[in-house]
Specification:
With 394 residues, the chain is α/β, with parallel strands linked by helices. It contains 14 helices and nine strands. Helix 4 packs across helix 5, helix 6 packs antiparallel against helix 7 and helix 6 packs across helix 10. It binds nicotinamide-adenine-dinucleotide and fe (ii) ion. Nicotinamide-adenine-dinucleotide binds next to helix 2, helix 5, strand 7, helix 6 and helix 10.
Length: 394
């Protein structure tokens, strides 16, 4: 039996008003005197920046704010944010927002510590050492970026989402306050929520840790499924099944917001140790080429990939069905399709602007992401197998 490890953010604070109660403590524990906050205009308007700076002011911590992050940021925006941060000379970076803002904050913390350009770092384990102290406060329930070792952005010239993966990109502190997600509109709730489900399902169905095909000499933050990631993935799936429809239907349903906030973080803990796989690999070229959110792209592709994996993950697919349906019918693919429909996730690539002639290029790009291919329980043998899945989804 191979050994496995389990990593998270340094400390996770979770619960209503967690920011008010714990942000000061988090700053003090990294000896911060000056913060740089990475966020966006929508969250400023929603009052979430004001709630974040309140404890900073009370603690006498000065701060600057960059509030121009846009969803799925391109490298140019990330560079602009880095320049603003450099001018501010902070000793802690605070990412406030969905995955887009948190990942931008991670990239800032990385470049401020090690220099260079964001495009120097995509791939596995290329960050040479600790980054600037990082506190992440999610305002969506989905990406799990607040606990993960990943930072995703768009390589605009290549029309491709890219990801920097490193143990050094796990934040020092994740402060998850479900009340910070209450202002999420239904579409953001649905898209980020199905991303959480995708993380949990890909983590649960990942190749077994014992069989993880890591070539000698290569490093990977992912390691295949292990009992702890599996446990968290199952609970995340259960919470999504119980609460995602409710959170989309009524954003003020606080019990549903609590449940989904935990689902997002647990999904993040699961995937960031076991790995994400073919769904994410196939979403990256789609997300780079057409304007679809990461979550919607993943949700669209998820059942098609589950079907591809069913030859080796039939019992997991049944289990997923039973968990999603609270012990009822055990067809995971059908349950995911039903959930996707109920929360308004698109079901066909053609409906989100993908042209049929784009598919072979997508398949080549997805197949090239070896670090994700090797996590998939049924490793695609060639681009053609991936193209067939894209065609089914088109
Ligand atoms: N680093 C990781 O581990 C990881 C994992 C999964 C996804 N991602 C990345 O995260 C990004 C997607 O993140 P996301 O799904 O959280 O969405 P997002 O950060 O792109 O936000 C989407 C929109 O929702 C708005 N929003 C967010 N919170 C809100 C709130 N509380 N109230 C009102 N509006 C709100 C934002 O302003 C934005 O306009 C993608 O780039 C994806 O690739 C990263
Ligand atoms: Fe994701």
């Amino acid at each position: 039996m191979r050994t496995w490890s389990f990593s998270s953010a340094g400390t996770l604070f979770f619960g209503r008003h967690a920011v008010r109660h714990h942000l000061q403590d988090a700053c003090e524990r990294v000896r911060a005197k000056r913060a740089f906050i990475v966020t966006d205009a929508i969250l400023v308007k929603a009052g979430l920046l004001a709630q974040t700076v309140e404890p900073l002011r009370a603690a006498g911590i000065t701060f600057d704010v960059y509030d121009k992050v846009t969803p799925e940021p391109g490298v140019e925006l990330v560079r602009e944010c880095i320049a603003a941060a450099r001018a501010s000379n902070p000793d802690v970076i605070i990412g406030l927002g969905g995955g887009s803002n948190i990942d931008t904050a991670k990239l800032v913390a990385m470049i401020l510590a090690h220099g260079g350009d964001p495009l120097d770092y995509p791939g596995d384990c290329r960050v040479p050492g600790p980054v600037k102290p990082l506190i992440c406060i999610p305002t969506t329930a989905g990406t799990g970026s607040e606990v993960s070792p990943a930072a995703v952005f768009t390589d605009t010239a290549n029309h491709m989402k890219v990801s920097c993966l490193s143990p050094f990109l796990r934040p020092n502190f994740a402060i998850v306050d479900p009340l910070f997600t209450v202002s999420c509109p239904p579409k953001v709730t649905a898209d980020s929520g199905i991303d959480a489900l995708t993380h949990a399902i890909e983590g649960l169905c990942a190749v077994n840790n014992d069989d993880f095909p890591l070539p000698s000499g290569e490093k990977s933050v992912y390691q295949g499924s292990n009992p702890m990631a599996t446990m968290m993935a199952k609970q995340a799936i259960y919470l999504v099944g119980s609460f995602l429809r409710r959170a989309v239907k009524d954003g003020n349903d606080l019990e549903a917001r609590d449940g989904m906030a935990l689902a997002g973080t647990l999904g993040g803990l699961a995937f960031s140790n076991a790995g994400v796989a073919l769904v994410h690999a196939m979403e990256y070229p789609v997300g780079g080429a057409v304007h679809v959110s990461h979550g919607a792209g993943n949700g669209l592709l998820l059942p098609y990939v589950m079907r591809f994996n069913d030859t080796v993950r039939a019992s997991e697919n049944s289990l997923i069905g039973a968990i999603l349906n609270n012990g009822g019918r055990g067809d995971g693919i059908a349950e995911v399709e039903q959930l996707r429909k109920d929360i308004g996730i698109p079901t066909r690539l053609r409906d989100i602007g993908v042209k049929e002639e784009m598919l072979p290029g997508f398949a080549a790009k997805a197949f090239a992401i070896k670090r994700l291919m090797r996590v998939n329980p049924r490793m695609p043998q060639n681009e053609g197998e991936i193209l067939d899945i894209y065609r089914a989804a088109w």
